[in-house]
Structure formats: structure tokens, C-alpha cells
Write a structure and sequence with these properties.
The protein has about 325 residues and is α/β, with parallel strands linked by helices. About 40% of the residues lie in helices and about 15% in strands. It binds manganese (II) ion. The site of manganese (II) ion (MN) has 6 residues, from loops.
Length: about 325
């Protein structure tokens, strides 16, 4: 049985966490050996794969940026408030932090790692990405096509890399994710040459076009509710399905907003998925506990599955209640 590094798949923070663990394991678990790390398989999973209990974990698994499995594992580190655990055994870490890679870096620093400028930048920028702490200029830089990519910032470099495992083909995504992490790793992904030979800019350019196509379709029905100060994106009204969703489009189009709200039909046809967010550039405008509102909405109009954080949340409701739930949410946002 060999060790396995199991991380949040198809996610930049999951990638950054696995990268950091592979490269800096000495500052996290000194009892491991280089051979343990070199032979460790890297696997990307989704939180639901851990929660539903279908995946079989072993005592040699290293789990990053994911909920803690129910069975015994070797190492676990996570930063999501919903995955809180108490009385943790050795090699298990949980703390609320903007990003999991940044949290791992903090642990390594406590164990003697000296931060270089590049590592400091890696931490800062992975935190921005995972906690959505972008400025409007950074959104423009990373979510809209730029004239050239000759001298990308570190933040943009990390987006270029993430674009490689963010295609619409999940099998391809897993293959790229895994391949990149099995290559020779430099100080951070920003300076890892084998990775740059795979031409991440090409993937990113395609993604920028997909975002633009999506924005054009969504433009037809995206609305602004002045009283609720909320951007309403009811995807049930979409006539076409094109491109890839840009989750920051609502706040770029309506900078005066406090909230964004989206609804879309689930594939099963009987449920609707609701997402609510606050304006990330103006979190001070957010007067409603969004996680709570999502929970209440789920209990009132669905089977109770919903929740989130103060600034962002989601829930699933019965499709037949969608219009009532929409009204309920906008009414609640108006009252504050
Ligand atoms: Mn994360």
C-alpha cells in the first residue's frame, strides 16, 4: 500500500494544496520519505465523493481541501467552516482560512519553512482566488481576454494554470490535473517549467471566449431589482446554452448591487438550484446572513438542503415552488 494525495479536484486551491504538500512535505510530515512522496498517486475528488461514503480511503491517505473522511486517514487539512472537526489526532488540521494552500503554508512556516518572495506571492494569490477577494481590476485581468499574455502577473499565472483543468470534459480535467502534479515541481507552479510547456495560455484564451459567449446569452435575461439591490439571473429564461458561466459577471455589470441571485433547473427536472452571493467588492453592503436565508428557503420550499456562509450560499428547492421562493428571497433582501 502506497501513500495517496487526495485533494479537491478541478479546483485551483486543491491543486495548489497538492503541489505544496508534494514539494514541502518535510515541513508538514517529517516522518515521510522522498520515496513515499514520489510514489504517491494524486487523486482529485469532490466534497460529495467524501460525504456520500462511496470512496474507499486507506490509512495512508493524505486528504487536502476536502471534508474529513469517516474512516482513519494519515493526514487531513481543511479550511472550510462547514467541515469543522474537534479533538483532532496527529497530522490532522482544521482552521478557518481564506485558502487551504495558504493554511498549509502557515503550518509549514511554524515548522521552520522560510518564506521566499515567490512563496509569499503564491499564498497571497491562492487566497484571493479561493476566498474571491478580487478587486474589479483583477477580475478584468483574469476573467476577460487581455491583449497579450507576455508578462502575466502571478495572479493571472495561477488562472492560466487553473484553466488547463477547467475544461468542460471532466475526464480530461482529471488527467491534466494528475499529469501536472506528477511532473518535476519547482518552488511554486508559477515557476514550474514543465507545466508552462503545456501551454496554459491556450487553455485560458479558450476559456475567455467561453465566458464571453455565456455573457452574451445571459445578457438577454439578466435583470437588476433596484429595491432588493440584487442582480437576478433566472436561467430558466435562457433560450440557448452556450459558453461557460462567469460567476462575477453580475457584479461587473451592475456595480451598484449588494447581492446576486441565480436560479437554474436541475437535470432531474423536479428541483431548482438557487445561488445567492454578495457583491465581493462591497461586502459592507451585505446586511443579510445569506447562509441562513438559504437554509430557511430550503426548509420552506424544498427538502431542507441548503446553507452556506454569511456572504454566499445556495439551496435546492422543488421546481414547482421556484417562483414563490424567488419572491421570498427578494422580499427578504428588500427588508434590510
Ligand atoms: Mn479551498
Amino acid at each position: 500500500m502506497t501513500y495517496r494525495i487526495i485533494t479537491h479536484g478541478n479546483c485551483p486551491d486543491g491543486f495548489a494544496s497538492a503541489f505544496f504538500f508534494k514539494k514541502y512535505w518535510r515541513f508538514l510530515v517529517p516522518t515521510l520519505t522522498q520515496k513515499d512522496i514520489d510514489t504517491a498517486k494524486v487523486i482529485g475528488l469532490q466534497p460529495r465523493d467524501v460525504q456520500c461514503g462511496d470512496f474507499e480511503f486507506t490509512e495512508k491517505d493524505i486528504i487536502l481541501d476536502l471534508p474529513k473522511p469517516k474512516t482513519k486517514v494519515f493526514f487531513w487539512c481543511d479550511h472550510h467552516s462547514s467541515n469543522k472537526e474537534e479533538n483532532l489526532p496527529e497530522n490532522h488540521y482544521w482552521h478557518i482560512a481564506p485558502g487551504n494552500a495558504g493554511f498549509l503554508i502557515d503550518i509549514a512556516v511554524k515548522n521552520g519553512l522560510t518564506l521566499t518572495d515567490e512563496l509569499t506571492s503564491f499564498k497571497k494569490n491562492t487566497d484571493i482566488m479561493d476566498a474571491a477577494e478580487y478587486s474589479p481590476e483583477q477580475i478584468t485581468e483574469c476573467f476577460y481576454e487581455q491583449k497579450n499574455y507576455d508578462h502575466p502577473s502571478d495572479l493571472l499565472k495561477l488562472h492560466l494554470i487553473a484553466a488547463m483543468f477547467h475544461t468542460r470534459d471532466t475526464v480530461l480535467n482529471d488527467e491534466i490535473f494528475h499529469t501536472v502534479l506528477m511532473q518535476e515541481l519547482a518552488e511554486t507552479p508559477m515557476s514550474s517549467q514543465p507545466l508552462w510547456q503545456l501551454n496554459p495560455v491556450m487553455f485560458h484564451k479558450a476559456r475567455m471566449i467561453s465566458y464571453q459567449e455565456w455573457r452574451e446569452v445571459v445578457n438577454e435575461y439578466m435583470e437588476y431589482d433596484k429595491d432588493a439591490k440584487c442582480v437576478v439571473q433566472d436561467d430558466r429564461l435562457a433560450e440557448l446554452s452556450r459558453g461557460v458561466a462567469d460567476r462575477f459577471y453580475g457584479i461587473m455589470k451592475y456595480p451598484q448591487c449588494s447581492y446576486t441571485f441565480s436560479l437554474r433547473d436541475r437535470k432531474d427536472g423536479t428541483t431548482v438550484r438557487i445561488g445567492i452571493g454578495s457583491n465581493i467588492f462591497h461586502k459592507d453592503r451585505c446586511k443579510v446572513d445569506i447562509g441562513k436565508l438559504c437554509k430557511v428557503t430550503a426548509e420552506k420550499y424544498g427538502n431542507g438542503s441548503g446553507g452556506g456562509h454569511a456572504y454566499v450560499g445556495g439551496c435546492t428547492i422543488d421546481a414547482k415552488n421556484a417562483n414563490k421562493a424567488k419572491e421570498f428571497i427578494l422580499k427578504n433582501l428588500k427588508e434590510k
